[in-house]
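Customer escalation, tier 2.

The customer says the design service returned an amino acid string that "doesn't look like it belongs to this structure." They asked us to rerun it and document both sides in this ticket. The original structure tokens are below, unchanged.
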């Protein structure tokens, strides 16, 4: 998640407080949602964490919207409408439910999953699509460095892996630390120095 948020903020450089909140929130969700399939590889704990984290980030987005008066919810309802939001949510949740049942690093780590989730998000909130996509891709790219293949072109059986680091090893902690430091720095620059 830290790498996803840092990537989104560095690439998009949002110029409004609303943009910063959307970038952080939807970028974070995009960065973790791929691992909703970890429960298919054994314990359900990993998938439960992803679901809880996604729910928490969603709540935080709307809390920030309420307290910081960013207008995210009002804009969604005015531009998209409740029926479209519900359709987008159903497509998003349906894609995730399907992905939960697939082996880890297959469908939910693919461009096909990204496309389906982006379509769902575009129906609900088009302004968040780029942020989500960057977060999602940052996760996939960091997984390329692991020893288990990422089937980015699912349903194609071939996958990509560089066999450089283990998923729960030192590199993971280094990526986390760098992601957190860069995220804090970027938030400081975007919000404090630019006074959004």
């Amino acid at each position: 998640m830290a790498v996803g948020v840092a990537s989104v903020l560095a690439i998009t450089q949002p110029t409004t407080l609303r943009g910063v909140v959307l970038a952080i929130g939807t970028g974070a969700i995009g960065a973790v949602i791929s691992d909703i399939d970890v429960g298919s590889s054994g314990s359900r704990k990993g998938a439960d964490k992803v679901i809880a984290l996604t729910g928490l980030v969603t709540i935080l987005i709307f809390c920030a919207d309420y307290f910081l008066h960013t207008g995210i919810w009002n804009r969604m309802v005015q531009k998209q409408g409740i029926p479209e939001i519900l359709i987008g949510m159903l497509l998003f949740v349906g894609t995730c439910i399907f992905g939960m049942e697939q082996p880890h690093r297959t469908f939910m780590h693919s461009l096909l999953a990204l496309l389906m989730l982006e379509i769902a998000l575009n129906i609900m909130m088009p302004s968040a699509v780029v942020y989500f996509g960057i977060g999602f891709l940052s996760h996939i790219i960091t997984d390329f460095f692991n020893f288990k293949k990422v089937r980015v072109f699912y349903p194609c059986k071939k996958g990509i892996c560089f066999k450089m680091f283990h998923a729960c090893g030192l590199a993971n902690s280094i990526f986390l630390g760098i992601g957190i430091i860069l995220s804090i720095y970027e938030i400081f620059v975007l919000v404090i120095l630019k006074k959004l």
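Tier 2 assessment: The sequence is consistent with the input. The chain has a mean pLDDT of 86. The CA atoms of residues 3 and 178 lie 8 Å apart. Sent an explanation to the customer and offered a walkthrough call.
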